[in-house]
Amino acid sequence: MVKVVSLKIKKNWKKMYESGLTLREIGEISGCSYASVSRYLKSIGIELKNRTYIEPSIKEPWKSLYEKGLTTTEIGLKYGCSPTTVCSYLNSVGAEVKNRIYIKPSTKEKWKSLYEGGLTTREIGVQYGCSKYAVNQHLKSVGVDVKNKRYVKPSIKEKWKKLYEKGITSMEIGTKYGCSNTTVLQHLKSVGVEIKSRKCIKQSVKEQWKSLYENGWSKIEIAKLFKCSQRSITNYFVNSGIKTRTRAESRLNYYKLRHRYKGLSVRAMGYVVFKERGADNDTFLHRVIMANHIGRELTKKEVVHHIDENKTNNETSNLMLFSCTGDHVRYHQKLKKQQLREMK
Question: The pTM is what?
């Protein structure tokens, strides 16, 4: 419920505000919000101060304190305000505000020679207690051509061609010289080296993948055997028109063909379950068999029913699919009614 403040109380707000009380303090005394006080004072033409209002007489010493060597943070702590407020005032009176970590120009002059001597911007920053960005900005301001993050000297790059032609991969070269394989490849292309494909696999090897896959091997297992990526195998199967297993078929293959029903267990409620690789929870066998039978994944709402009520009998002829739990419950109620009629 909105609290109504009488006009008599509101008239006192102007005097209270001019005496030095804040909007929040006036609101607490009157039992209302500071927003209500603010709206009323604005409506009668009173200019409100900022939330953290500081008298001009207090701000006057800030410039001399700053010029003596105190930071904006130290001045703010002394006068109970933020360093941003101090910065804003100093800028308004024409004082040159230094960076957060101020570094003397005489110090910065050394950076150019250090950088040209081989030190990185990060190493210079660590040495002088500042960020690499501060070093970067200064070097650019004095006309120094700043190198990339992963700059490699041309004398080092010259060795890459010989190493690559000897059979060392771009990844191995990059690891040895502390850069990415992309940097190595870009340099090799620029000097006219013919880049090999990432993993050149012979056609005779790829043909073995099909027979292994049809014998129940998964793509992950084939990839481990031939030391290639799963993506390479998938691309080969797609391009060759080889039909891959669905998720349900893969599950069925996991426990049936490859593992010969190993790892199966019966829960307390009587359902047969097994553990899939990488999964935290058990997988119900009867749901996997039904999904494989109908050729699609089951939704979370769908329920698989055992016709003979033997939960370990997971033959497709013994399974019935319901769209939701409600349909399953109604089916059981119907069966009970039929049993009662037969008993009569």
Answer: 0.31
